[in-house]
Amino acid sequence: MLVLAIVGAVWPAVPEVSAALLAWVALALLWPGIGRRQQLQALVFVAAGVAALLWGASRGAPLHIDSLLGQNQPILSMLASITLLRLLNRPPRTDDPELPRGLGAYLQSMLGVHAFGSVINISAVIIMCDRLTRMRPLGFDQAQLFSRAFSAVAFYSPFIGGVALALSYTPGSSPLVMMLFGLPLAAAAFLLLYWFARRSRDEDVGGFRGYPLHPQDLKVPLALGAGVLIASVAMPGYSVLALITMVTPAVVVGVLLKRSGLRGLRPALAEYVRERAPQMGGELALFLGAGVLAAGVVAAAGAGDWTILPRLDAFHASLLVLACIVTSLVCVHPAVLVGVTVALVETIEVDPTLLATAFAMGWGLGCAVNPLSGVNVVLATRYGADNWRIARSNTAYSASLFVVAVGLLYLYEYTRL
């Protein structure tokens, strides 16, 4: 899947659905090792998605097999690529420096995952969590912070799928203006997280183990971030997910060659094929199942002659953000609502920048409370965190930021007038 995704990105002759088909083959091979709860979730999503797709098809909606099979294949290829970074993790040693603790470590981790995530996407979460879990499992407080801080990147960063999708679905929108209204919401998220930390018991914050922002721990994320930025300038036609998928293997191979030469490269790649990649069974199940569900919901929504908004102003944009949060609570990814909304607002005149800004805000706030958002699924499948508990605990966080988002949308409308 990973190889075909990379080859297909640079060679259009390779069918897009080929990597997706191999993703399903991989899921079939790894299915026996997936937990029963994840198996049940995936089966429910597939069944609901197929039912919605058939209902839509019976009413004239077109069938898009590539979307049905490969809705989330790009992010799965990116995750498979990012898994290579684990080959760079040195075994834990007794003389490893102790992880920083306390409020300072909390703030460093919050700003670090956000800053790196704004460039290298969810790979920032994986890099930091891999470092934190060398000696002990990831704590709930750590998983909760990473979920919140990373989701806030979606308010403005064009390197996040939600923002890229919002801009691509709204021709004529201004990325700069969207960022100007998304950045204050991200700043509000930082202040809220800081307040949450100060409000909690002193021993909770005092014992927080954070990511060490030392030069030796920043080499890999800095190298990957620089590679993605350079590649995005040199190859502007590629999505950020595709660039990360292509750049990460080059970074990993380069570091391994520098460390141990060709003699050490072969066993490292063999470890990836035999041990690391097969650990993705849970991610394959949830992302592929959620993709089928999303494709079915979009087909069902497009089958009716419906309208979702009579017009688009600050009030209705706020309702759209609220809808992203509410539907995320019941495991519907914001991507589904974005696709449905775009299909149903074609009959009205909209401000594309306002629509894109509402999409980005809804994406970030919705992903925080969605148990099946990318970051929460990764925290669950890779590090054993309870994605349902994380999502429930983020409800008050997203609700508080929703008030700020509404204020910013009304400010946009006022300044535009």
Q: Can you give a write-up of this model?
A:
It contains 20 helices and no strands. With 417 residues, the protein is an all-alpha fold. The protein has one domain. Helix 15 runs parallel beside helix 17. The protein is globular and about 65 Å long. The relative contact order is 0.15.
Structure, briefly:
The protein has 417 residues and is mostly helical. Helices cover 73% and strands 0% of the residues.
Counted beta strands: 0
Structural class: mainly alpha
Q: State the shape.
A: globular
Number of helices: 20
**Rg on CA atoms, Å:** 21 Å
Give the tally of structural domains.
1
Q: Give the fraction of residues assigned to helices.
A: over 70%
| Largest β sheet strand count, sense and barrel closure | none
Order of helices and strands: HHHHHHHHHHHHHHHHHHHH
Describe the secondary-structure layout:
Layout lengths: L1 H9 L5 H15 L5 H23 L6 H6 L2 H10 L20 H18 L2 H10 L7 H12 L9 H9 L5 H25 L2 H5 L8 H20 L5 H37 L4 H22 L11 H16 L4 H11 L7 H18 L4 H10 L3 H7 L1 H22 L1
Helix pairs in contact: 2-14, 3-14, 5-13, 6-7, 6-8, 6-10, 9-16, 9-17, 10-17, 10-20, 12-13, 14-16, 14-18, 15-17, 15-20, 17-20, 18-19
What descriptive keywords fit this protein?
mainly alpha, single chain, 417 residues
